[in-house]
Amino acid sequence: MLKYIGKRLLQTLLVLFIVSIFAFALIHMAGGNPALLLLPDGASDEAIKAMEHELGLDQPLYIQYIQYMIGVFQGDLGMSTAYKIPVADIIAERLPYSIKLTMGTVLVGCSLCIPLGIIAGSNRGKPVDFFAMFFALLGNSMSAVWLAVLNVFVFSVWLGWLPSMGAESFSNIILPALTLGYPMAAEITRVGRSGMIDTLSEDYITATYAKGISRRVVNWKYAFKNALIPIITLVGMSIGSYLAGAVVVETVFAWPGIGQLTNQAVGNRDYQLVQSLLLVSAALFTLINLVVDIINSLVDPRVSLE
Amino acid sequence: MKKRMLSALSLLMAVLMLTSCGSSGSPTEGEEGGSSAGAEGGPSKTVNIAISENCITLDPHNANNQGSLIVSDCVYEPLIQTDNEGGYYPWLATDWEYDETGTVWTFHLRDDVRFNNGEALTSADVVCTYQRLIDEYDSLCRAVELFPDHLLQSVEAPDEHTVVITLARPYSVALFSFAKTMIIPKSVYEAEGADMFYQQNLVATGPWKLEEWVDGQYAHYTKNEDYWNPNYDSYYEELYVRHVLESSTAVAGHLSGDLNANLTTGGINPDMLALYNGSEDRIEIIPVEVFSYYYMGFQCGEDSPFADINVRKAFECAIDRQSILDSIMGGGVVCKSVIPKGVLGYDENLPDYEYDPELAKEYLAKSSYNGEEIVLSSNTSTAKAEEQLLAISGMLNEVGFNTSVSIVENATLLDMRTTGDYDVFMVITMHGGGDPGSIMNMRIVQDAHSSDFVDEELNNYILSGLQTIDADERAEYYKKAAERLREVSAPHTALYSPYANYAIDYGVVGLDLYKDGMLDVTFVDYDPDATTFRGPDYAALSSF
Known about the structure:
The complex is a heterodimer of chains A (306) and B (544).
Chain A: H1 2-29, H2 34-38, H3 45-55, H4 61-73, H5 87-122, H6 127-141, H7 144-158, H8 170-200, H9 203-210, H10 215-243, H11 247-252, H12 258-267, H13 271-299
Chain B: H1 2-19, E1 46-51, H2 66-73, E2 80-82, E3 88-90, E4 93-98, E5 104-109, H3 123-135, H4 141-146, E6 152-159, E7 162-167, H5 174-179, H6 186-192, H7 195-198, E8 208-214, E9 218-223, E10 238-243, H8 247-255, E11 261-263, H9 270-273, E12 283-289, E13 293-298, H10 309-318, H11 321-327, E14 332-334, H12 357-365, E15 374-379, H13 385-398, E16 403-408, H14 410-419, E17 424-429, H15 437-445, H16 456-466, H17 471-488, E18 492-494, E19 496-505, E20 508-509, E21 512-513, E22 519-520, E23 525-526, H18 538-541
Parallel strand pairs in B: 1-10, 1-11, 15-16, 15-17
Antiparallel strand pairs in B: 2-3, 4-5, 5-7, 6-7, 8-9, 9-10, 11-19, 12-19, 13-17, 13-18, 14-19, 20-23, 21-22
Helix pairs in contact in B: 10-12, 15-16, 16-17
């Protein structure tokens, strides 16, 4: 297992290296001079040149890239051109909010819908199955923006039950977590149901029935474990993308996570911040993937890490 | 059984971790930031105000966006106060005078002002502040904006309560610049430098004390109980300035009671105003006739179609400003020039821009324009940029132009304007403090947008106005400049000033919705008897 993890970490480094090149190239291809954003309208040529020098923008692109990567390996993600403080500090301040939102989303998505998917799969064609599929179809069809605004107006404006914005208390997380969690829940229901249907058609399940084991035990003890594998993969991938930032939902709910920060950084043409956000997001995503693979191997011994 | 216990424990832990999100100042929680009743049975002693921009820095000398200025202005104070409409009032300085050259300004400081760390304000603090602007001119945004071209020459303190500031040349809007320069404490600045801002150690003289600024969320203030000015004693004990970047969220938050005021930069989108229907008993919509105005800038270089005055005239005549204002912008005032109504030098007698497609065709027929494509550019930060430009493009194409529309990122448009790589751009701007001098100087005389248009007569009017201290005389120069600009139709053509609509709870008063588009929440207060909103009364606040 350790050998596998070491190999995957090396692969992760390679992925991050490629991502860093892409991030660097994309940001610079987008155009716009960040020095101008930091200076007042009508700043003199001398002031613009001085600012470009300060930001290292007067260096050739490959030198800028090398300097950036040297900093990354030393744990220095550079200075934000807009905030004028270390990028690492800004990300460290915002990342916990993304983690909290991700946890809330996963809680919403998994708590109801893993059982729902399993029950639907083991009751194929029955009313509970139709209900689960309708629920899944609805969740997959709604856009995040629409659902976010709908949630705000229903739960905050009309019912007055929950705050519409902010991130200061437990109640603040409910609406964004519901908004992100519902499409996730819908997907889990769908995947869980089809996984369960596939598993229940296996010969070993028929054999367990033949032994006289009750339907409940067969479903939850034997079939559930196998149906869980695609769900774990799905949840893992979702965690990776939510940690990387749920831009729309974070913006609508004024949730100060990585998504909102990315949105602002792109608008401010904050080169260093955007580059580092892309890098950090990619790192989180690949690490979560690694964790998912390990969990899958623990849940299902047939999945070999080697 | 064990497994069930484990599952239950896992769930409990997850909930506990989520609940550990903190509990400071949630808008719905009465005691902190919410709607709990005040001690006397009135509304909450906490006021929540939404602004649509994030704060980038707490450094009042380096703030380059409105979000940062609003946050730092609540704690820092200037020597003199202004209503941004040409009125100036004593504040940290009791009085001031300037010499016959208009370059040497003397300020006499109050002797009863203390910073919120207990230290007394002296002339050394003012010297420290202005010296910082001189020493770090190239790196401080406010130094360049308020005192362009190294205008600040020196600052001296003849005694503990007198400061003499010397300018390199007379500057007509010097008072406005002084009113926007926030005084920082020498002792803290010398000890910590700019770290004082990054560490949120905002030692200042203002009516609010910053408790915490959380990036992307809010700035939380408590009342400065030892505030020096007895004329301002807010009903509110706590103030939250919340950064709500999404306009629909701000409206929803206001309707749900999480917010007491929705101050979106440039006003609430007219399309969103209908959402406030039904809340008239609690919330008042305040339309402000602002100085800010949309304009289009022409690239007038040799190879550009706009080097020909007939093309520029045709362009101006082809645009139906009123219809765009009514149908897209939700109402406002059509401009007569780049000096809109309410700004010094506005000329009521200047003829309106004429909408005459036939005349536009005539101008175009006698021009050198050969049908080459003209790109109308704007940026994503400009409200309804695409709708406006599409409407304008349609009108222009009707009379024979060949135009297309391009909406780019803010930074990209800045770059285009700096290098002159554009045909026509459209943005919104405003004349800070109601004086057009610095904007016209920067954008026309200095040609900050590389339009390659030079008209000596126009430039002379602007420069003469800029160096004239007397307001009436200055207004005359600006009128002539506006008239000349209309004659040559370059480098800008003005469009309109839309109304800026803000939404504020009844009873909440003292927010300054400046006509130049800027906002200030420092003097927020509650008046149960107020039947309509009113801003701060600076004359009363400064009557000592």
